[in-house]
Amino acid sequence: MRTELLVVIKKADELCTNEDEVKQLLAVNSRLSVDGDLLKLDDNLSATITISMGDLTESQERYILLALEADDPDLEQYEELLRMVKTPLYKLNGTNDRKSLEVLWDDLAAHYAHKSYPRIFAVENLMRKVITRFMVVTLGGSWSKETSPPKIKEELSKSKRSNGGNDLWELDFIHLSGYLLHPYPLKRDNSFDADLKALTKENAEEFRKNYEPRSNWERYFNDIVDMEAEELKVLWDKLYKLRCDVAHCRFIERVDFQNISEHCDKVEKVLKEALEKIDKINIPADEKESVATRGDEYVESANMIQAHRLNTSPLRHLSPKEIEEYFMSLTERMQKAMKEGLIVPQPSFNERVNTLIRDGLIQPPEDISR
């Protein structure tokens, strides 16, 4: 196992001007000792140490290149050795800044990256398996061609990969979870205005059911698995960031591998549970079309403003005054429905209402507590 470290210091500091002085600096720690080319930790771990030095003429600086190599060391002891070597090197330029020390090579990080990748590979493809099973059960074998969102088709058109299977095998990690975790309303927003006009106490529950954004996981998996959609989304997002570190060859430390293992354990457990119980999912016939056609809304958050954008809406034919009157009317109807309790304050539903308010298309009701 090999590690290479590089530190640059000012010539004027006259610190560690030769190899012996560098070794003396390391040996200040009572747990470290240097015997020739061997660096020892508590007489339990020995590593070969190689030191090379040179001047950087133009910048009036010097560099110290230090390499450590140990044969099949105990990993925890080797990590401790590295920590004790790095600590005094951080201080050489007077800043005690970790960024002042460059890690040129780190077999320890490579070790944890190699252990991390199979875990990520397994959980990523397990998610594909769950989505495929769910969509096939829901929509039949041609689901991927019928339901791939425009944004996903755009991504797929850029992709040079082809595995001969459904589109999920050509999607990146971060795009996968949207099929199950992105919230969307059952009815399209272009029906919202008409349904709002007809809103009464008798049909309020149906109105909320149709327009409250909920994910497929919330609708169809919450009752059969032991994890809420938001918890799964948080875990998936954390895994994505760690996956990027592995994929981009960043240095992976023990704590990163532990986090990857912990997150993968939790996600694998719930996805396997979902697979075992997926045949219990019963999607009403009137909801299947929404599952099939609303996949595009997992890329862009579903919100009512989409139906009212002037470049695609019937409103583009109205004059500015008529548009203003239209939204004034919509504001009044929204406020009336909220005052009468027909629109119950629920974060997931009110997110759509707040989008209209935020974009200035309706006014917030002044006398409604939040």
What report would you give on this structure?
With 370 residues, the protein is an alpha+beta fold. Strands 2-3-4-5-1-6 form a 6-stranded antiparallel β-sheet. The model is unreliable at 146-153, 295-316 and 366-370 (pLDDT under 50). The chain is built from 15 helices and 6 strands.
Topology:
Blueprint: E1 2-10, H1 19-27, E2 32-35, E3 38-41, E4 45-56, E5 61-69, H2 75-90, E6 101-106, H3 107-139, H4 143-147, H5 150-158, H6 173-176, H7 178-181, H8 192-197, H9 204-211, H10 216-221, H11 229-247, H12 254-277, H13 285-293, H14 320-339, H15 347-358
Helix pairs in contact: 3-11, 3-12, 11-12
In short:
This protein is α+β, with helices and mostly antiparallel strands and 370 residues long.
The geometry reads as elongated
| Rg value | 30 Å
Average pLDDT confidence is 77
Strand content: 5-15%
Task: Note the total helix count.
Answer: 15
